[in-house]
Design goal:
Layout (H helix, E strand, L loop, with lengths): L1 H22 L9 H4 L4 H4 L3 H11 L20 E3 L5 H6 L15 H17 L14 H26 L23 H18 L14 H16 L28 H14 L32 H4 L9 E11 L1 H6 L13 E3 L1 H4 L46 H6 E2 L4 E2 L2 E2 L4 E2 L18 E2 L9 E2 L4 E2 L2 E9 H15 L7 H13 L5 H8 L6 H16 L5 H7 L3 H4 L2 E9 L5 E10 L13 H6 L10
Helix pairs in contact: 1-4, 4-6, 6-7, 7-8, 7-9, 8-9, 9-10, 10-15, 15-16, 15-18
């Protein structure tokens, strides 16, 4: 009976997300007659099943890294794409503008299409008949679906703000004659009032946790999370300032600035994040797990702590206590392993779409909590006279044994020279006589590293010719960790320099404990840092956030809201592994790619066609 229940549960999740893929193709909605068998608006909203499918289809527009092969964070300092000539390269080189945007940055039309669908659903749902034989079978389900649409609308508006700043607020479906088509952009205050009100309304009307066929739909915890995510973003340095992204003076009447710094924005963000963290709804908590030292077996390299296995489980458990909403990837499969592992591990298809850079690898402390390299105030490595990263003399770090004694999350996140998957070693070396290891990629991105995060080397392995075995994967759209770190960040910024930071430390220690790293106080003492110093705590929190949430579509927005793109997105580095004649290796840090990030890039340009169509729509600074 238990096996049957588990099967039915997994099937319900698979059905929900496969419905998103099958309802429509990109840019085509359920009401498109060509694709949906002459479904009219009247027919859709007079049938509970069709109306339910209409709402379900809106979820399809939530960004999901798994379905896009190359993660959004590949367009930052921590990542590179193996096919380096695609959309990622356009971002790296600054080769885009308001009339020619890379595909992954074309968010405006897609998100407004989702908002329009939410508006349509909210206008029509009260007229959908209750039918016990259909998806809208009770009035309570109808009310729940209404609040889902409210939460979804708030989500997409929040994503628009992360991309562009304030945008026109549209809450009804428009026709070609609607005057709202020429709405100006809202100020940050107007966006704040609207989004927080929407989130509060949705949170009051939704359940805390979805189960069965309703998982993973919107919940009260997701609604609270959207509010906290939005408030953190607009409290950050990009907006909470008296100048715009390019340094020009600004006012509160603009859609990209509060006009002046106000620490209350940080307090609002901290309060919202803490409301998520401390909420009893749904009984969410960080996934913590301990396994024995031989958990992965002899065919898999994992020299990390057995107490740090929660960071592995959170990405492979279909449903867990940490993730509020996720995107399960196609049921049980090994497709993700084929996409991330070296192509030589699998005979068919493309592989290693997203590569981690050595900038990312360098962020991980040693297991004693000491950074192995020296960095500037923005977290960018300091460079010595030989072009190498400056080693932290306190770390007792050997640059020729670079993968030893590191934070356990390093081993859950990165494959490196000599690391094993399914008994197969990763060989990214080259020799002076021209020989190369099997995993050395010629003609593609080559950083000397491969991405391990999200993968399951316990249940997926290598057969005689290809990757075999299956597992469930979970791409977190929103998880508790984000808000633990959000509270720590916002509260640190709110507090005066030198003030007691006990509450900040308490939340950070939850993260440190889960990965079996020294607690925050011990880490600061070992490094000689002042635990009440705002700038030192800021640098520590940002590093923790990047390590913990890398490739979950956060770094792309974090470097922008922190306003550190110019300082951190200039050069990415690779690990060059040289095979010596005696069989030993020499490790060198080398520039892989010089990149261009200009001050204006902290906000995306609004598509020029939208500007041309609406004379009241103001373009972002510098574009």
């Amino acid at each position: 009976m238990k096996t049957k229940k588990i099967f039915n549960y997994l099937l319900s999740i698979s059905v929900f997300w496969s419905l998103l893929a099958s309802c429509t193709t990109e840019g085509v909605g359920l009401l498109d007659k060509t694709e949906s068998g002459d479904l009219t608006e009247e027919r859709v909203f007079s049938d509970g099943n069709y109306a339910n499918d209409f709402l379900t289809d809106i979820y399809r527009r939530i960004p999901n890294g798994f379905y896009e092969n190359v993660y959004l964070d590949a367009a930052t300092d921590i990542g590179e794409s193996r096919p380096w000539w695609g959309w990622v390269n356009s971002v790296h080189t600054g080769a885009y503008n308001a009339t020619d945007l890379p595909g992954r940055l074309r968010r405006w039309a897609d998100y407004y299409a989702a908002i329009r669908a939410c508006n349509k659903f909210l206008e029509k749902i009260d007229n959908v008949p209750i039918d016990s034989e259909q998806a809208i079978s009770t009035d309570s389900i109808r009310r729940a679906r209404k609040y889902e649409a409210v939460a979804l609308r708030a989500y997409f508006y929040t994503e628009l703000v992360r991309c562009y700043g304030g945008v026109p607020i549209i809450t009804k479906t428009l026709t070609q004659d609607s005057p709202e088509l020429y709405s100006p952009r809202a100020t940050l205050q107007e966006m704040k009032e609207f989004i927080t009100k929407e989130c509060d309304l949705a949170a009051d009307g939704l359940v805390a946790r979805q189960v069965g066929s309703d998982y993973p739909r919107m919940t009260s915890m997701v609604a609270k999370g959207i509010k906290a995510r939005f408030l953190l973003h607009v409290a950050s340095q990009l907006f909470n300032n008296n100048v715009d992204a390019t340094g020009a003076p600004t006012t509160a009447e603009t859609p990209w600035s509060w006009g002046q710094y106000d620490k209350q924005h940080w307090k609002d963000a901290a309060d919202a994040a803490l409301a998520v963290v401390n909420s009893p709804d749904g009984n969410y908590k960080l996934v913590e797990k301990t396994e024995n030292s031989n958990f992965f077996g002899s065919k898999v390299t994992y020299p990390g702590s057995g107490k740090a296995m929660g960071f592995y489980y959170v990405f492979i458990l279909r449903s867990n206590d940490e993730v509020f909403i996720n995107h399960p990837y196609k049921g049980n499969t090994n497709e993700l392993e084929k996409w991330q592992l070296p192509g030589s591990f699998n005979t068919g298809g493309d592989a290693s779409y997203t590569l981690p850079t050595y900038n990312y690898a360098a962020m991980f402390e040693n297991k004693d909590g000491i950074p192995v390299y020296l960095t500037d105030e923005y977290g960018f490595p300091q460079i010595d006279g030989n072009g190498e990263f400056k080693i932290n003399p306190s770390a007792n770090f050997d640059s020729q044994k670079p993968y030893e004694n590191r934070d356990s999350r390093f081993y859950h996140s990165i494959y490196y020279q000599g690391a094993k998957f399914g008994g197969r070693e990763v060989n990214v070396w080259r020799s002076e006589d021209g020989r190369k290891g099997k995993e050395y990629q010629v003609g593609y991105g080559m950083t000397g590293l491969f991405l391990r995060k999200f993968l399951d080397p316990k249940n997926v392995t290598i057969g005689s010719k290809e990757i075999t075995g299956q597992t469930s994967h979970s791409y977190p759209i929103m998880r508790l960790t984000e808000f633990v770190l959000a509270y720590a960040e916002a509260m640190n910024e709110y507090l005066e320099d030198g003030a007691d930071r006990t509450d900040v430390i308490r939340e950070l220690d939850k993260i440190r404990k889960r990965c079996d790293m020294p607690d925050t106080k011990t880490t600061f003492e070992r490094n000689g840092w002042n635990i009440t110093n705002k700038a030192q705590m800021r640098k520590f929190i940002r590093n923790e956030r990047t390590i913990e949430m890398a490739f979950e579509d956060n770094r792309f927005y974090d470097i922008r809201r922190w306003k550190i793109g110019v300082q951190t997105q200039k050069t990415v580095y690779a690990h060059d592994v040289i095979l010596n004649d005696d069989g030993t290796f020499t490790y060198k840090i080398i520039p892989w790619e010089r990149r261009l990030f200009q001050a204006k890039d902290h906000l995306l340009p609004i598509p020029q066609g939208e500007i041309n169509n609406n004379e009241n729509l103001e373009q972002n600074p510098g574009w």
